[in-house]
Amino acid sequence: MNRSSSDSDELYGLVRKVLRLSRRFGQTLDEPLESSLGLNIKELLVLSAIMDGAATPSAVAEAHSLPAPTVTRIVTKLVEAGLVQRVTDPSDLRRQRLELTPEGAQTRSRTRQVGKQIVEKQFGHLDSAQIRAALEALSALEEALFAAPSPLPKAAPKLEARL
C-alpha cells in the first residue's frame, strides 16, 4: 500500500504513542502492584505465563519476550517466595517444569483484583464508546503486527563463523 508522507508520519506517530503509553501503563501499574502484592510487573508476567501453561523457563521467556537470565532470576525469586515450584521431569531428570503453588494461584487472582482497581481509578472516567474504539484500534494494530513478517534484519554472523 502506498501511503502519503503525511499518512506515514501519522502512522509512525501512532506507533511511538503506543510505545510511550506502554511504558506509562507499566509505571502506573508497577508501584501499586508491588506495594499490594510484593511483586513487580515482570514477576507477575512470569507468574501469569506459568499459570497459562508455560512449563519451562524457556517457554516463559518466549511467551513474554524476556531474556532467559531475567526469567531465571525471577523464577528463583518466585520459588523463594513460595509462589512457584520447580518439579523435576521424571522422564528427563535434567529438565525441570515450573508449577504454581496454591499460594501462587491465589496471588495471581489477587493481581487481577488489584489491577482492576488501579485501572478503574486511572481510567474509570472513559465512557464505553471510547473504550470500544480504543480496543478496536489496538486490536487492528496487534493483528497487523502479528501478520507482518518481522522487519528486523538477521543478526550478523559471529566473528568466529566468518573466520
From TrEMBL:
PROSITE patterns: HTH_MARR_2
InterPro entries xref list: ArsR-like_HTH (IPR011991), HTH-type_Bedaq_tolerance (IPR052526), HTH_MarR-typ (IPR000835), WH-like_DNA-bd_sf (IPR036388), WH_DNA-bd_sf (IPR036390)
CDD domains, sorted: HTH_ARSR
Domain HTH marR-type: 11-143
Gene3D superfamilies linked to this entry: Winged helix-like DNA-binding domain superfamily/Winged helix DNA-binding domain
A matching Pfam family: MarR_2
Protein name, as recorded: HTH marR-type domain-containing protein
